[in-house]
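hey can u check if this looks right to u? its 194 residues, i copy pasted from the old doc so theres a chance i mangled smth
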Amino acid sequence: MIVKCGLGKSRSNLWIFALLCGMILANGCVFTPRDPETPDDTDTEWVSPTEPMNVLANIAFALAAKTTTNYENSLDDDFTFFPDGGDYGDYFAIWDFDKEMKAIEELYTLATAIDIQWGDIVIDAQSSDLNILEADNYQMTITYLSGEQVVFGGGAHFYMSLSGGIWKLEMWDESVNTSGNSGGQLRKNLNIEN
């Protein structure tokens, strides 16, 4: 009596499966994960900051698009903000890079639109690695969630530093400002904790 186990068909299926696995392994897996992409604000315009004025352009683009990455990339790590002569107590005793970024993030949650116009900019002082740009009357128009529009601005000096061929904003100085609705007042309104 002859007993058939039915392995003949299974063996041929096993060989086909082994052959397919070998082909896949030899050619590499089709589902190889790719390297993760660096997050960026690809929808936001960016001008290479090879000139000091490009830094102000990038800040304007970042504010309009409400992107923190491009704003952050426009500031020097040692960024400092000096307000106008308003009565702010010790609120601006330390206004550095971290505090500025907290303020921008808070502003983005409160505004539907931000438009900054730098006005006439002149070079007040210039060296190979530092430029001081002077704005007579910049204006930042903020449209809040309520629909209210408020204009902040006035006069300011922007200290741009050069490092590695890239210009960044090192200091935003509004001590020359006589406007009541200054950048200092805007930052004070945001009530950022130390």
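The beta strands are 75-82, 111-117, 121-126, 130-144, 149-163, 166-173.
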